[in-house]
Amino acid sequence: MSDLGRALPAQSIAAMFGPPEPPSGVAYFDKARTLLGKNEGLDRGVIQEYLRNGGVNLDPATTAWCAAFINASLQQEGYEGTGSNMARSFATYGEAVDKPQRGDLAVFSREGQPNSPLGHVGFFDGYDENGKIRVLGGNQSDSVRLSSYAPDRLLAFRRPIKGGGPSMNAKNPSGPTPAGTPLPSAPAPSSLASTPPLSVPEGTSLASFFTATPAQQPRVDTQARAKADRLRREALYADPFA
After folding, report:
1. 51, 64, 156, 231 - which has most CB atoms within 10 Å?
2. 213 to each of 29, 104, 204, 210, how far by Cα in Å?
3. Around 227, how many Cα atoms within 13 Å sit in the side-chain half-sphere?
4. Distance between CA 116 and CA 49 in Å, rounded?
5. What is the 3-state secondary structure of 162-210?
6. Calpha distance 129→127 (Å, rounded)
7. Taking Cα atoms as reference points, which of 69, 32, 53, 75 lies closest to residue 162?
8. For the chain, how big is the Rg over CA atoms in Å?
9. Which parts of the chain fold into alpha helices (H)?
10. pTM higher than the cut 0.85
11. Which residue ranges form the domains of the chain, and what is each CATH number?
């Protein structure tokens, strides 16, 4: 039997992608590279196990899994993902970067459908000889592999932050507040300065004053005005009368 008729010895299909590169120093990127060359059909069980180890229960043979692959890779290295199988969920994840580094996330629109909610996400791995953005990702030609994408499809470069989570930027666009930073004091409402002193009718408790029903409120207001008039007359004439 010729070599074409035999399965590849010892080496996996990943060997077809060139010699292995040294570790990048980015744990989740290196974790993702361990599946390089795995196909959703031939290696369905391997990919499913990888996803499960990252907290994602999904069948790559029946469901688009590029975002699931990123989430699982991040989760296995202690990073919180987006928890979504939508690629565009990563468009606001972590922090934005203008000069991406290997292992950052590249989020793309769907080809020919820039306004579609669908898209693609992968780990940035530089640029190819044509200036296209090269990414390592899942569900790229049904496999984990390196692929290149046109820059005009790019939606965002994002950098994962350990402990940052998917909604960190939505809660605090400027990033986490450094420890020890004093919280700003709430400004005093300007209306307080012009608020007149509270007049409570004599013999009326605060509880009953504030809980007076609309039907009772006119009586309470009348009593307050009567008391105020009596006190004013006392001050003017020093001879109180009813």
Report:
1. 51
2. 66, 62, 14, 9
3. 13
4. 30
5. CCCCCCHHHHCCCCCCCCCCCCCCCCCCHHHHHCCCCCCCCCCCHHHHH
6. 7
7. 75
8. 33
9. 27-33, 44-53, 66-76, 168-171, 206-210, 217-237
10. no
11. 12-171 (3.90.1720.10), 198-237 (no CATH)
Say whether 119 sits in a helix, a strand or coil: strand
User: What are the structure tokens assigned to 235, written together?
Assistant: 């001050």
Paired tokens of 207: 């509880």
